[in-house]
Write a structure and sequence with these properties.
By secondary structure, this protein is of the alpha+beta class. The chain folds into two domains: 2-122, Gcn5-related N-acetyltransferase (GNAT) (Aminopeptidase, 3-Layer(aba) Sandwich), CATH 3.40.630.30; 150-183, no CATH class. Helix content is 31%, strand content 24%. The strands form two sheets. Strands 1-2-3-4-5 form a five-stranded mixed beta sheet, sandwiched between helices. The protein has a two-stranded antiparallel sheet with strand order 6-7. β3 and β4 (78-87) form a beta hairpin. The longest helix is centred in the N-terminal third of the chain and has 19 residues, at 12-30. The radius of gyration is 19 Å and the shape is globular.
């Protein structure tokens, strides 16, 4: 029997060796130039993202991991998002998404979304494709650190990269000037 288990932050270090292979394989399959093992672990340890494990009770082995994020959309609705998913034999644990949805609903989530490859749509009939991610590599294969400040020589403007979440946090905390600064180009 496989159960969905939420892993509290205080247990991440002890669980991580059991799931590290899933993290590595998930990155290799889908997120090579977006995520690193250390970056994902940091997001989980900070509490920004949450770790769920599809755990087989009999063998005491993980079958899948899901990393979720909860956030508030600009409209004010609460979104639950599966940001990372990796596992084996998905037909054995895919039904656990219903349990995850139920738990998300209990904490006020109104919409539940997943970042997934196209093939997932055939197994997730209750979900609809609402957007398509279009991506273009502007670095010619040379990946930059997104935290680096980039300077254009023609107008010497620096572009700071901050997440939408920081902008939302600044707006909701009433710090409008900091919010404007974070999205302006100097």
């Amino acid at each position: 029997m496989i159960e969905l288990v939420f892993i509290p932050v205080k247990h991440i270090e002890s669980v991580w060796p059991l799931i590290n292979t899933f993290v590595e394989k998930g990155i290799e399959a889908s997120f090579k130039d977006r995520y690193t093992v250390d970056a994902l672990k940091k997001l989980i340890l900070s509490g920004s993202w949450h770790l769920w494990v599809a755990w087989e009770i009999d063998t005491k082995q993980p079958h899948a991991i899901m990393m979720t994020e909860l956030y508030e959309e600009l409209s004010g609705i609460k979104i639950g998002s599966v940001r990372f998913l990796s596992g084996i034999n998905r037909k054995n644990w895919l039904g656990l998404l219903a349990e995850l949805e139920r738990q998300m609903y209990e904490v006020g989530v109104v919409k539940f979304e997943m970042w997934a490859r196209k093939g997932w749509a055939k197994d997730l009939k209750d979900y609809k494709i609402t957007h398509v991610l279009l991506e273009k590599d502007l670095s010619n294969g040379k990946i930059r650190n997104v935290n680096d400040n980039l300077t254009t020589t023609s107008n010497e403007r620096s572009i700071r990269s901050r997440s939408t979440r920081n902008r939302i946090d600044n707006r909701s905390s009433g710090n409008e000037s900091e919010s404007r600064e974070s999205i302006s180009t100097n």
